[in-house]
Amino acid sequence: MSLTVWKNLRLAPTANPSEMIADACLVVENDRIAWLGAAADLPSKYQQPDKTHDLGGRIVTPGLVDCHTHLVYGSNRAREFAMRLAGASYTEIAQQGGGIVSTVNATRTLSEDQLYEQALRRLDALMAEGVTAIEIKSGYGLDLETEAKALRVARRLAQARPVTISTTFLGAHALPHEYAGRADDYIDLVCQTMMPKLAAEGLIDAVDVFCEHIAFNLEQSERVFQAAHALGLPVKMHAEQMSNMGGSVLASSYRALSTDHLEYLDEAGIKAMKAAGTVAVLLPGAYYFLRETQLPPVDLLRKHGVPIAISTDSNPGTSPCTSLLLMLNMGSTLFRLSVPEVLAGVTQHAAKALGHPNVTGQLAVNHKADFVAWDIEDLSELVYWMGLPRCAVVVRHGAISIDNRKPE
To answer: Per DSSP, which regions of 188-274 are E strands?
Structure first.
């Protein structure tokens, strides 16, 4: 048994500014929190720990959770981005090999080692800002071999870095070119071949589907959910990003962990999500990058008490972002979310969307000791600053994974 006391800190156990403990201690036994509270109340049995760490009065929050990313993919789409800025249409870009097809081709071509090295850089950038848990989706392979390759990379990343990674199978992300005009046949492949084999290899923690007019319809999406349900896998959905197809109602009927994007979500979908306990994951990076103008219905989500998470949606085509802290600022400025809302959105609500048993997004007794000490005077600074490093110490499962403090 190893007992560590973290002292001289200002503690925000749920990342809520109104629940700050001004002079606090955290006691960690092995990888879990044994006690937390005001320093003056530290029990005598913890007065002589194996180790003591002084955090110099820094603010401590739960580790951040990035609950929606597509981190494993080949190459990038910077050239396509430049073409779009120069006035090229989506059709023109696609005719020159751009769009998701280009990412699929690159991901299929690269080796597992090459994909790993590219994804590792992106993961390190997120971890440097205090991310201790992350979801990684597949979806840029669109065939069994490459989907398996991407999910193996995600599992490998979890072994290489001190971070909790939840893997999501997104085989129903887009229609591969070899199945053009045969969407139902491709869904057969996803449900009858890909999903069972990948699940049998232990590569899937959850299943996602892109329900939209440019991807898959309600009937096809439900087939994916039925196959996941038969395998005992929880589901998620990319829904209501470009139109209101009723995907959130369908996803809620399967008690989805989350529905994500949601710019065109209506009140019926919101009520269904509330009844099912489904989290609304908002993705301000994609909203910004695509120059979207339809705001997600934040007021209705608040009215019905649906938990709101915020994530990077890190992906090559619509949100090439590796900064969850930047998403806090965008969530506030673009979606008018308050400081407590966006902080809950990358901690406890993001943890619920992630659905991992060891990730709660809160600091409490018996929870895993995942927390961050920040060089800030007020929690609102995490939402305010853009690009100024504020992360001092990251602790994951009780061990220091990042320490940016200057030697005294």
So the answer is: 206-209, 236-239, 258-261
- Distance in angstroms (rounded) separating the CA atoms of residues 19 and 17: 6
Q: What is the pLDDT of residue 96?
A: 78
Q: How far is CA 60 from CA 39, 330, 363, 391, in A?
A: 14, 22, 10, 10
Report the candidate in 78, 76, 80, 79 with the shortest Cα–Cα distance to residue 115: 76
Q: What tokens appear for 10 in the block? A: 């200002």
8 Å CB contact between 33 and 366: yes
Q: Answer whether 49's CB lies under 8 Å from 293's CB.
A: no
* pTM for this entry: 0.97
Mean pLDDT on 57-85: 96
Decide if 1 contacts 30 (C-beta within 8 A).
Answer: yes
**Residue 131, beta-bridge partner list:** 64
Residues with Cβ within 8 Å of 253's Cβ and at least 6 positions away in sequence, in order, are: 272, 276
Kind and range of the H or E element at 229? helix 218-230
- Which residue type, as a one-letter code, is found at position 84? R
Enter the tokens of residue 140: 């840029």
